[in-house]
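#struct-help
A.M.: can someone run this one for me? Single chain, 380 residues.
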Amino acid sequence: MELAAKRIIAVAGGGTAGHILPAIDVLRAYRREFGAAGFFIGCASGLETRLVPAHGERLELVPGLPWARQGLAGKLRAIASVPAGILAARRILRREKIQLLVGVGGYATFGACMAAVSLGIPVVIHEANAEPGLANRLAARFASLVCAGFAETAARFAAKVEITGTPAGSITRASHNDAPPWRFLVLGGSEGSPVLNRQAPVLFAELRRRGMAFTVRHISGFGEAAAIARAYGQAGVDVRVDSFVDDMASVYNGATLAIASAGARSMAELSAAAIPSFLVPLPGAANDHQTANAVAYSARTGAAVIPESQWDTGQVAARIEAIVASSRELGRLREGAAAWSNADAALKVVRACEHLLRARQAADQRYRATAIAGSADVQD
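D.P.: on it. Structure tokens below:
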């Protein structure tokens, strides 16, 4: 495969911010390091229709529907959408002369990866979660390389795996607050966490009853912000509730502790910002990947993991009281989070991709040289 001097790449996936934002980071890193041109391939049914243009990136849409958490009818519709997604992606990849496709998981990944394989375009998968999603598991069978956010992911793939971490955008170590009024975060991811949206107002009402002084910033996911704000208001808790926040650096700055679902992107950001955390995995996540994420992250950082089934407001409140009462414990958790940070994860993905492309180019050149030499021998 002859590669032009300038890389032309595409990233494919979407559905949730956990897929979309790392893909945007990879696009930007490729552009910054190698002057590459590139764009995002997604579906009209995913959050990419909002986030990709909002981040100034080009979005190409292909047919595709969600599979996870769908009933039988929804799964059948998702399967039926795949052939059209492959054909649409083939047209886009061929038209744009794409040299590399990076699949990140989500609705558009499988069709776009199959289209790339059919055109002889190298495929790299980025899997952020400790337990891979269906699209990436299927696409990885045809991929040249898998870049993984967790070391635990490697055993889930037959393809070559390189541990790169998960990109966390521009998040860097945040300032922190080790004295009252404490500043607590509730982070449910782009889709929101029903258990956190339901239980967090009750928890902070209990902490207020115990005499603690604090404020709360709650990121609820779309659709419930007003109701959650009312629940906090009824409890007399000082809170700001947002459905989604683009500038997460401002959210982390000055935080004391986060209570968060266990999406891989959220943990990458918490680590980059060095925020102590309680993790409450979303039980309905595909393949229970949030539980796998939380267990792996906790083992490295010391973060507490509280399954929804074991949530007890009084016990959680007591644990939070004990943590914030000890600057030593806050410091230990903060340093544990920071130690896992992969601030250069996007660059690692890009360099792994470049290594793959250059190796393929060198192999092609050797093949041509051998073919030419063989042809000359025949003529002699």
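A.M.: thanks! The mean pLDDT is 90.
D.P.: also worth noting: The first helix runs from residue 17 to 34.
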